[in-house]
């Protein structure tokens, strides 16, 4: 019997077959895994090639510098032949300011630009609360873009002041990110003042209303309880906002006059209008939606009935109907002498519309939690609000992130519907005005492509951040 052969040296490792690695493996698994997928892949490639063969020449032959559509066509015919077609991007180059600012005064462009930059500063501690490096990068990039944008719009001393302000905020975002939450708290009032102008004491007195609410709550709640303290604090704040705050602001303005030139709402337009309505409605509708979701699950019959009635009514009415209500009917329900700004009325109705949908999304998140979470909160001796803040709501919001972000994206895109109530949105309002100019008469696709690109960037950014947030909060075992 012969002795078995035993190898004395280990063979060197070999690379896997070509079909099991790299691009070839990916294509086998994703594009050609079966005869049906292979046929669909080939048909999709042919469709993409056909569309690209039609669109690419039109895009590549685009003209960016011209004074009219006729001049665009002359340049394209000269460069690419008499039968060539091409995009006339010159309309965007010539009228970009209307797509961005509408008819906002040129001398005040620095105000919405600064306001937009401060929006990202206010969002930094919210979006990256546990990552100071990313928050600092975000604030630093915004600071550089802001300074470059303001170089031709403000005098040198204002530019130096802006540089000092943004440098301080950038340093603070890295060393103490949580301190920027004060910027986030002040930003809504500062934003209103920067965009509309007027006396600075109006927004200051509006902020003071929240101080009145907290003061009354702390005085009342020890003796009468949390619910009574909250209710009386809210009533006191409403009295301050409706009556006393305006009187105090007028009195201080007469002694210390300070403010900006007032800008009428009909001067707003373009993406400035879309972001004002979208950001305001998104930021306000989430807490209202949380309260409505909790109210719908409340054991108190009146609160539950009111919450259900509001949610079901709003969800059963189209947004365009609510916009017409904001434009035509809301004023009739206000006390005599009150004249709410049209944009403010639209923001109120859009916020309520979004809050109703957010309430249902968050209610789904609350229903997804096991009953043991509520029992654990009771076992720890927590009251209702402590249990919601520390145990229930963080888990429910984590589950609800995809639905909430989807609602926000839909809301931001729906801001284009405000054109039906006379506001100059970027998609229909500004585009119609630009195309009515005889110089650009006959142009069609270019403005819509430009607006669609901006909307895509904003919505895609929200979607990617939601995916990042889901991954960060995903703590279960995978």
Q: Key features?
A:
single chain, mainly alpha, MetI-like fold, two-stranded antiparallel sheet
Summarize this entry quickly.
This protein has 478 residues and is mainly α.
What does this structure look like?
- With 478 residues, the chain is mainly α.
- Among the domains are: 38 residues; 221 residues, MetI-like (MetI-like fold, Orthogonal Bundle), CATH 1.10.3720.10.
- The chain contains 18 helices and 2 strands.
- The protein has a two-stranded antiparallel ribbon.
- The protein is globular.
- The model has no long low-confidence stretch (mean pLDDT 85).
CATH fold node name of the domain at 95-104 and 268-478 = MetI-like fold
CATH-level-4 superfamily name of the domain at 95-104 and 268-478:
MetI-like
How do the helices and strands follow one another from N- to C-terminus? HHHHHHHHEHHEHHHHHHHH
Q: What is the CATH architecture term of the domain at 95-104 and 268-478?
A: Orthogonal Bundle
- Tell me, what's the shape? globular
Number of strand segments:
2
Based on secondary structure, the structural category is mainly alpha
Question: Strand portion, in percent?
Answer: under 5%
- Per DSSP, the total helix count is 18
Instruction: Pick out the low-confidence regions.
Output: none
Radius of gyration: 29 Å
What's the arrangement of secondary structure elements?
Blueprint: H1 22-30, H2 35-60, H3 69-80, H4 90-101, H5 110-127, H6 132-150, H7 156-175, H8 181-196, E1 198-199, H9 201-224, H10 226-255, E2 259-260, H11 270-296, H12 301-315, H13 319-329, H14 342-368, H15 371-379, H16 384-414, H17 429-436, H18 445-473
Antiparallel strand pairs: 1-2
């Amino acid at each position: 019997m012969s002795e078995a052969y035993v190898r004395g040296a280990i063979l060197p490792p070999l690379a896997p077959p070509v079909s099991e690695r790299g691009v070839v493996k990916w294509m086998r698994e994703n594009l050609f895994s079966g005869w049906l997928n292979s046929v669909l892949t080939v048909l999709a490639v042919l469709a993409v090639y056909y569309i690209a063969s039609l669109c690419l020449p039109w895009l590549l032959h685009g003209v960016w510098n011209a004074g009219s559509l006729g001049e665009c066509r002359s340049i394209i015919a000269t460069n690419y032949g008499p039968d060539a077609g091409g995009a006339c991007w010159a309309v965007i180059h010539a009228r970009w300011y209307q797509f961005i600012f509408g008819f906002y005064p040129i001398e005040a462009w620095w105000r919405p630009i600064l306001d937009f930059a401060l929006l990202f500063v206010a969002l930094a501690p919210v979006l990256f609360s546990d990552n100071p490096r990313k928050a600092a990068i975000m604030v630093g990039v915004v600071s550089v873009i802001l300074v470059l944008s303001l170089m031709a719009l403000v005098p040198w001393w204002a530019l130096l002041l802006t540089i000092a302000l943004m440098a301080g905020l950038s340093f603070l975002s890295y060393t103490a990110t949580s301190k920027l939450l004060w910027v986030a708290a002040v930003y809504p009032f500062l934003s209103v003042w920067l965009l509309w102008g007027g006396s600075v004491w109006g927004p200051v007195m509006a902020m003071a209303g929240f101080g009145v609410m907290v003061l009354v709550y702390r005085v009342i709640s020890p003796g009468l309880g949390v619910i009574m303290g909250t209710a009386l604090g809210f009533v006191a704040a409403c009295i301050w906002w409706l009556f006393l705050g305006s009187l105090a602001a007028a009195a201080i303005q007469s002694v210390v006059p300070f403010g900006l030139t007032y800008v009428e709402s009909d001067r707003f337009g373009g993406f400035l209008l879309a972001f004002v309505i979208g950001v305001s409605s998104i930021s306000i509708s989430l807490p209202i939606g949380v309260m409505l979701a909790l109210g719908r699950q409340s054991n108190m019959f009146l609160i539950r009935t009111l919450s259900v009635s509001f949610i079901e009514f709003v969800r059963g009415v189209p947004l365009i109907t609510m916009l017409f209500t904001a434009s035509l009917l809301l004023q009739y329900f206000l006390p005599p002498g009150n004249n709410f700004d049209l944009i403010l009325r639209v923001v109120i109705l859009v916020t309520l519309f979004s809050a109703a949908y957010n309430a249902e999304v968050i209610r789904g998140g609350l229903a997804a939690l096991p009953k043991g979470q509520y029992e654990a909160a009771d076992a720890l001796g927590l009251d209702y609000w402590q249990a919601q803040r520390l145990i229930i709501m963080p888990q429910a919001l984590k589950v609800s992130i995809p639905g909430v972000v989807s609602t926000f994206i839909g809301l931001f895109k729906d801001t284009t519907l405000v054109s039906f109530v006379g506001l100059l949105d970027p998609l229909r309002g500004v585009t119609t005005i630009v195309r009515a100019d005889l110089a650009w008469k006959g142009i069609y696709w270019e403005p819509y492509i430009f607006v669609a690109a901006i909307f895509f960037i904003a919505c895609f950014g929200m979607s990617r951040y939601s995916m990042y947030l889901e991954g960060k909060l995903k703590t279960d075992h995978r």
